[in-house]
Amino acid sequence: MSDKQIYRVAVTGSNGQLGKELAFLVTKHPRFRFIFLSRQDFPLDDPEKMKEWTEKNHVDFFIHCAAYTAVDKAESEKENAYLVNATASGLLASFLFKFETKLIYISTDYVFDGNSSGPLTENAPTNPVNWYGTTKREGEKLVLNNNPNSIVIRTSWLYSGYGHNFLKTMIRLMKEKPSLRVVDDQKGSPTFAGDLAGAIFEILESDQFITGIYHYSNEGETTWFGFAREIKRLTHSSCELIPIPSSEFQTAAKRPAYSLLDKSKIKKVFGLRIPDWKYSLGLCINSIIQGV
């Protein structure tokens, strides 16, 4: 990659937590000119407007963060969730292929069924247990089929100081309630969206854009209860946390019981160093407290 060339990058989901974290880092990467697209700028339910935008705005990279992410609501809004996560992603990939634009599609650990006993590699069989996971898996397939210049990044338990997520919810509820019941039989690794944004920049800055599927989450493993316990410790909360099995916390969509991702591939290919989840959680909570 030339040091002098300026690269144009478009990002969907500009108001989401990953979009916000990418925007926070742009000044550190002066070789890239970013266009951040909101739902109004780039409506995923309007193929004609999507196509028109890609034809008028030629970019070198397109980072597709926007998605239908309401996991439980997806069970009753199946058509809409599929349109946004699968159909629109496939169309976007085909529009971009015409202009040789490189695409990064953000996916999820929910493409797995949770029955694994060890960290999941990119080649592990997918078998989603809810509709959201199904739509994201179909999105992966369509993206890779329609634009060979694509990278799919599966991530898990994403949180940030921006947007709606488990961290923000726990901080609020720990202030409001004397005790909380938190699921303790689902294993995975929380992922700080700021770290994922940094990894995406590493890929953009890389000499080679090696296509395919990659896994990215922070290092280490825990449960939702363990995640909440660390949030409690770092925020000095007095709220009592009670571990419960997922059978006691009924949701419209089933969650995979195990979704720990193996990150060996992305570390090797792009030379990434991935922080431990507790370290990154501490940084994120400090920035929230300081109002950064």
Spell out the blueprint of helices and strands.
Layout: E1 7-12, H1 17-25, E2 32-37, H2 47-56, E3 61-64, H3 78-97, E4 102-108, H4 131-146, E5 150-155, E6 158-159, H5 166-176, E7 179-183, E8 187-188, E9 191-192, H6 193-205, E10 212-215, E11 222-223, H7 224-235, E12 240-244, H8 264-270, H9 277-290
List the keywords.
alpha/beta; Rossmann fold; two-stranded parallel sheet; globular
Strand content: 15-25%
Q: What's the helix-strand series? A: EHEHEHEHEEHEEEHEEHEHH
CATH fold assignment: Rossmann fold
State the end-to-end distance: 33 Å
CATH superfamily: NAD(P)-binding Rossmann-like Domain
Shape: globular
- The radius of gyration is 19 Å
What is the percent of helical residues?
A: 25-40%
Low-confidence stretches: none
Biggest beta sheet summary: 6 strands, parallel
Total tally of structural domains? 1
User: Strands of the biggest beta sheet: in what spatial order?
Assistant: 2-1-3-4-5-10
- What's the helix count? 9
Architecture (CATH level 2) name: 3-Layer(aba) Sandwich
Structural class: alpha/beta
Q: How confident is the prediction overall: mean pLDDT?
A: 96
- Number of DSSP E strands: 12
Main CATH class: Alpha Beta
